[in-house]
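As a warm-up, study this chain.
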Amino acid sequence: MNNVRFSETRFIDRLLPVVFAISTFAGLFYGCGSYDTNEAIFTQAHLEGMIYDNHNNPCAGARISADNGPAFVSDVNGRFTLYNLSRGIHEIAVVKKEYETSSFSVEFLSRTQVLYVKMFSQSQLLELAETALDGRKLGEADEFLKRAEAIDKEVPVLLYLKSVLELKRDNYDDALSLLKQLVQMGYTFPPVFLSMADIYEYKLKDIPNAISALKNYLNLVENPAVRERLSHLETGN
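Now compare it with the structure written out below.
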């Protein structure tokens, strides 16, 4: 998903903080006002811009290109320049490791235009997914998780949140499968085993596997409440 905006003020003269309008799931947005006649008459010019993440922090090291041409890298302040860009419509691509790739069209009509691009890191998409899950907005959570998965599908937090989504959808076997995948990958975190125990005990009524999961949990961290729960399951009380 991409967020783009144009400004009429020259890049070098901008001293005020950048304020982004956020469009939910909007792929592209930009605003163009009236143009100075002299600035709009050109064949080629440099298009300057800034790249920010979803927290409005500058994105350094992003690679931006126009029409599959040479890529230019944003600096520590997220600033970049696309050199010798012809007047008209261009296809822009922005790529950064661990970030969602942005691809969109822009119409370059004035030498005073400044391009603002918003990018989402995988961690930011996972934060949004977790917030959506907390609010039981399962459709939104699913969308954020799919976008995060397109960046890297084997990140442990991603797999865990996918298991939470499946659990909230009452897909218990799918939730367990994702948790087991985490264990097989070596991500033996306490919440993984506690989630497995919850599914086995409360959803599937599989007490032996619930006991096993609780023991694995207690091998990693001591918790009196969990130990008492294990004791009740083992004694049948």
